[in-house]
# Entry
Amino acid sequence: MRFELLGAVTVEGGGVGSAKARALLAALLSSPGRAVRPEALKAAMWGEEPPPTATASLHNHVARLRRLLAEDDRPGSRLRAVPQGYVLDVAAGELDAEVFVRHHAAARAAHRDGDWPAVLAECRAALALWRGDPLADVPALSDPLRAYAAHLAEARLQTLEWRFDAELALGRHQGMAAELAALTAAHPLREPFHRQWMLALHRTHRQAEALAAFHDLRRTLVDELGVEPGPSVQAAYREILAAPQDEAAPQEAQPSAPPAQLPADTGDFTGRTDELAALLGVIRPCDPDAPRVAVVTGMGGIGKTALAVHAAHRARGDFPDGVLYADLRGFGAGDARRPRDLLARFLGDLADGGAPGTGGALPLPEDPDDLSALLRQALHGRRVLLVLDNAGDAAQVVPLLPGRGDSAVIVTSRRTLADLPGAVRLPLEPLGAEEQHRLLVAVCGQQRVAAEPAAAAGVLAACGGLPLALRIAGARLAARPNWPLTALAERLDGAGDRLHALSAGGLAVQDTFAMSYLAMRDSPQAAEREAARAFRLLGLWPGHPLDLTPAAALIGRDPAPAEDLLEALVDTHLLQTPRAGHYSFHDLLGEYAATRAAEEVPPRVRENGLRRLLVWYTVTVAGTAALLAPEGHPIPPLHEQPAVPPLEFDSEEAALRWCVKELPAVKEAIRLAAARRWPDVAWRLAAGLFGYAQAYWWTGEWDLCLQEAMACVEETGDVQGRAWMHSRLGVAHGMADRVDPCLEHLGVARRYFEAAGDLQGQAAILNNLSGLHHALGDHGLALEYGRQSLDLHYAVGDADRVATVLGNLGDAHLGAGDPAAAIACYRRALGMWRERGLLTSTARSLTSLGEALRTVGRYDEAVAALEETVAILDRLGDRGTAADTLEVLARTHFERGDPASARKHWDRALELARTYRLEAKARTILAGLARLDACESACVRQNEDGVA
# Structure
């Protein structure tokens, strides 16, 4: 097993889990094989004042760490409890920090003996183990861990000093100047680096710059500490002064080869054909005045660096004067690179490569603007490609840009760098399905993928089109040739486990995401820290898109400042915005955000954020019901106001479109409310879907919502919620012709409303019972319930619901054989709906009126009413109800003697019924068509008989 502390804390190259788990493992590994007291472990995890639950939580974290460290071929656990605390057993060679210390000690001994080849070998082996700052992802180091990390960091700097001593002693000073320039800038008081830089400059025939480096150091030491440089630096200075002006190493007499600093290309680079062509078109355009700066942007793991490096290799022949590459470290472990340091390095690289105009033997200027001008001068007339990888912001990049000319620049960044002038931006999206498949084949083999297509599809779906995730999945499979794809697909299938499964060696998807998130969370800028807070809170709702207003409710900000935060997350590619004002997570980023919310957001803050969001949805859903089903029993308002105003709809069409789009989110809101025992929210959300259900009842989704909300109100004993859920379930069963459960639920609801003294609720139930008994054929009871409901509505002054009761009374009159009374009721109801401008209710009244007019042979009036209904339903997009109306319209045409029109409307009704799986309606329509066919056949035979 391999443990790593020289960078992020990892086990077997993969992430450890939460910040506290990383702190625990780091504390144990800082004393491998030795007992660490529980108090020290708690201090590492919680600081000097651990919470009262720290002991129990420590035991839980230890148990989880034991599971992580379990090995099939090793009995027992590496992590043991002993009387003094806990011991983590680590074998020789398993901990990178211990391996580094051994190489460091060997280098020290060889340095003392002057064995320079041995020094160089040991230093290189030691430095190769480093991946970043030690314990880089342990957010708040305890004093012992901070001292341990500082000790390792100091040992690394000493190892670097010994390496440079060995290279100078062996005459390998070529190319050292740039690296030492950066180190002296980062450590301005560390004299050994300055001495080595002076010698490296001197021995590459840059005597003036070497002397300037000495004077810079002397000025810094005198100003800062009041001391002169030490003896070794003074000796180097004297050596430079005493050297003849023409002294130089023989190999320096001729210019060296142009710089060629590109990392290795990805051997199995796959896809991105259009993006690659666009990128190459920017850096080698036909128009000499066209921009030569391309910015490749996208979320972490999307493949920005791979594309940039691949394009640079493809275009290498177009830049004979060299390719410069630098990781700007805008995101990730370590401090971001300073433009001044990079300018000094590039100027040194170009000078070593024979580029003119870099200042020759002149010292480099101090001012960064002067350095930028010098770089532009060095690049003038040359054809050099600069690849600036992982930029944090435009300020890092602008000083490094060449002027107009034949040089070009590729920048990669997780930010959009909108303020970078004159750049062409190439945003990267997740790979398409075909490109994903090709990449998976490239990394783990055609035969393996072809053998298990279903498992391969599962792996691709889990990776979400992210090239890094696909490469990690392929690497895991390549390292386990006996694994079927199914084994990995199953590991990636569990929600919340994919990020852990998507790690291999030093690669981990969650570490890549963490670079972007931690850069914002730990930023010195308050706005970025606030955006990181918004990211965590959005992680409470990772699986559903959010418009601006509900997102503002969730994060607890007004819409305008919330939009600034969301757009900042979009600019850093931590959030997507498929259209203005609409936000969503990439699938894997949503899972990472949920992890951050669970680990970093206090429970009370999580609950408050979700409550704000769910209250907003509750009030907005109630608004759709008031618009789409005004005849229904009005939902009592919540006792709290939404944090931001709910949506207001200017038409029934808009309300219906919103319901259709947001139904998955509303269902999730009901589930979360039930899980948190918030019955007031759960039952109001489910009840508020009544307006949607009347138009889209055939989906059956409303039933599921009502049942989940009912379980919540039953569990919590919410009496008002019980009344409403029984009422709505009765309506839902009635709409689906489930008579017995409909009658049962309406009866229970009536008793609850009577016990509560809710007259409006009782009036609504009586109206529902009227409609139900009409459907059962008991028209006398239907009329009785209808009249009671009408009287009760008038008694409580609820005139808005009178039109609904009149519609049910009309149905009862029609069933009882009194079409004139029915038509009168329908016309009264229709006038009310028209006056209020409510399309859905107007359409229902027109359908009923058309049916009644048909029964008394007033076909022209019936057709006019039914055709107006169809037009309204088409406008609303209510295809299911349109099938009903078209069937009535077809019968009307059939009875009036117009078979062609009857067939046309029956055919259209049948198409809708089959599309929306309305089996009963389809059977009724087919029966009508059969009658029409029989009638037409009879007419044909009659005509033939007459001709004969």
